[in-house]
Design a protein that fits this description.
Length: 415
């Protein structure tokens, strides 16, 4: 008997009627002979409400440790409500079911409250539930530290919970969302976007990290490392209503027809920091990025160019928009030590990327990208590449134009 972990996000469990639909989807998998665990998010909007309450409670007084652990206690409660309601719904439908909080499984994490990483999930309790014919309904987004404190995994952490549980019990993972799979680009921007039947772990990881909101980056990393079969599909259908729906995330070798480019992703959550008049000698870049790393500021695209004087350079790099002002403050505080002349920040930028494992063996991908953007009059500010992606930073006003142009240039509307 195969094991299946089903994960449902906040919009899928937003109210009791949607929870009943989830119950019907779960019941169909049980009837098909699967041993089923279900990982659930908080009902849509609930986590934001809980976070607002913690903000209202205020920070700890001077000399008292910060309340990150208590923050986790509060915000983890949303998933527990959903788990209990779904377990009750399944029982009402005649199925054996019980809810599991993260600490009951247990899902062991490190002590980084609010952004914890999963260390281990002993599977014995869940396997016993399976053997007893019980559906295990697990509160996502949360675990427990070794000293017994609740810890949350960060926004989107229920995806990671689901993949980790699937790895622990040796099962597959179906992630139900408000879309019916992974598309070649955002259908809200390009109406000709096509649903992909399969996508490689590597491509999905790049798309997730570059702005696609379908899966959380850490969940894809974990699925790839543990070789967990993942399927993305819609929760807004009834059982049997859409056979063959969804996108399978799998090893590259399982994809028969390898595309040069599989998708176009974009992110408007970008800010460009420019340092002018940097001393052009070894150690300067190390000093800058060490200070940013020490403050947990994640840097993405980086480009350095010669300034007008022969002994100086200019540097541009990107950070998340919410980190922009903090990044500026960090480098300004070290201006004398670093020796640059001035710093500027531009938050009116966007990153657009093309992704595809076929780039490894095909020339001309960059030529097509730059040609398509030039034809539309889109100026490129910064470029970064990896083995299977090319990203460019452009003026935010041209985001949608660039996405549509690249989607057409690579023939993604013909898939």
């Amino acid at each position: 008997m195969s094991r299946l972990v089903m994960k449902f996000g906040g919009t899928s469990v937003a109210d009791l009627e949607r929870i009943r639909r989830v119950g019907r989807l779960v019941a169909a998998e049980v009837a098909a002979g699967h041993q089923v665990a279900v990982v659930v998010s908080a009902m849509s909007g609930k986590t934001n409400e809980l976070v607002a309450w913690t903000d209202g409670a205020g920070r700890a007084a001077q000399g008292i440790p910060e309340s990150d652990d208590e923050y986790d206690t509060v915000v983890a409660s949303g998933e527990q409500v959903t788990a209990g309601l779904l377990a009750m719904t399944l029982r009402n439908m005649g199925l054996k079911a019980r809810s599991w909080a993260g600490w009951q499984v247990p899902i062991y994490t490190d002590e980084a409250h609010g952004r914890a990483r999963i260390d281990e999930i002993p599977p014995e309790k869940l396997l016993k539930a399976f053997d007893d014919g019980e559906v295990a309904v697990i509160a996502g987004f949360q675990g427990v530290t070794r000293d017994g404190r609740i810890a949350t995994l960060g926004r989107g952490g229920s995806d990671t919970s689901a993949v980790a549980v699937a790895a622990a019990v040796g099962g597959a993972c179906d992630i139900y969302t408000d879309v019916d799979g992974v598309y070649t680009t955002d259908p809200r921007i390009e109406a000709k976007a096509k649903r992909l039947a399969k996508i490689s772990y590597e491509e999905m990881l790049e798309m997730a990290s570059l702005g696609a909101k379908v899966l959380q980056t850490r969940s894809v990393e974990l699925a790839m490392a543990q070789r967990v079969p993942v399927r993305v599909l819609s929760s807004f259908v009834e059982p049997g209503e859409a056979p063959g729906q969804g996108t399978i995330v799998c090893d590259e070798e399982e994809i028969m027809e390898k595309r040069i480019v599989s998708g176009v992703a974009y992110s408007r959550d970008e800010a460009k920091i420019t340092l002018l008049g940097l001393p052009d000698h070894p150690g300067v870049s190390s000093l800058i990025f060490s200070k940013l790393a020490d403050a947990n500021v994640n840097v993405d695209m980086i480009v350095q160019s010669r300034a007008r004087t022969s002994d100086s350079a200019n540097m541009e790099f990107t950070v998340g928009k919410r980190d922009a002002q903090r990044a500026v403050e960090i480098v300004r505080a070290a201006q004398v030590e670093i020796g640059f002349e001035d710093v500027a920040v531009n938050e009116d930028v966007a990153k657009v990327s093309v992704i595809g494992v076929g780039m490894r063996s095909h020339a001309g991908v960059a030529k097509t990208m730059f040609g398509a953007l030039a034809e539309k009059g889109v100026n490129i500010q910064v470029i970064s590449t990896s083995e299977i992606k090319i990203s460019v930073l452009i003026d935010a006003a041209y985001t949608e134009l660039a996405v549509r142009a690249l989607h057409a240039a690579y023939g993604l509307d013909q898939l």
